[in-house]
Amino acid sequence: MSARRLIAMVAQKGGVGKTHAAKLEYDLLQRRGRRVEAWDLDASTGTFAVYGEAIKTFDLNESREAYSWLDDCYQADIDDVLIDVPGGRIDDLLRTFGDNSVAALVSAVRDSGRELVVVTPIGVNIAETVTAQVVLTAFAETAARVVILKNGRFGSADDFVIYDGIDVAGERRYGATGDLAASVGAETIFLPCLAPRLLAQVDAERLRLGDAAGAAGADRLGRLNATRVQMYLASVEAAFRGTSLAIDGMIPQRAAAR
User: Fold this and answer.
1) Which of 41-45, 242-246, 249-253 is most confident?
2) Domains, the chain, ranges and CATH?
């Protein structure tokens, strides 16, 4: 059964690719015919708002709008709502609730008939990895689904040793964040990376990735580059298949905590 979702992109550490992941998921959902809206909760400087890609914008610094985005979540007759949180911090997302309650957020989203999917990208460095523990701990023992995205911009899937742990002379080192993710039933996905030079060209042309893979991309980037973008989107869609970020909305049962 296809699920209705509120997909929240959060990150306790800047520069890990939160907004890129949000735009990527948005483009893929649109390409596959999902009814999706992208909401930017930072109406003044949010990337979705600046590039005109958000259907709705809200300003969490305005007390009225801090509540209205959740009201709209109840009313929206669409499959998926994708939100990019300003700064990416959980505290900003929880500003809607006076007591900053994670439980209140999760309950409100479930009452709106949606699955809450909290996505946090990570890099390979320790600061980019251990800050994900804040997200994992906050949503442990709730009905929310937590997805850790290993951002391939920082290395291959095997390079995330601080997250996964590594064996050194018969001794396992690091891995506390990955262990915590497994213990609370979170999902871990490796996010493939588009060649940085090509990604820069797409950005410079103010193209959405979905458009860069089509006629607009062939015209402004060249046919070969448009094909490369198309292949990249296919690889990301394959990586998301069977997970809470599945483009067709066919998400698995929530993993049991260990």
Assistant:
1) 242-246
2) 5-191 (3.40.50.300), 193-248 (no CATH)
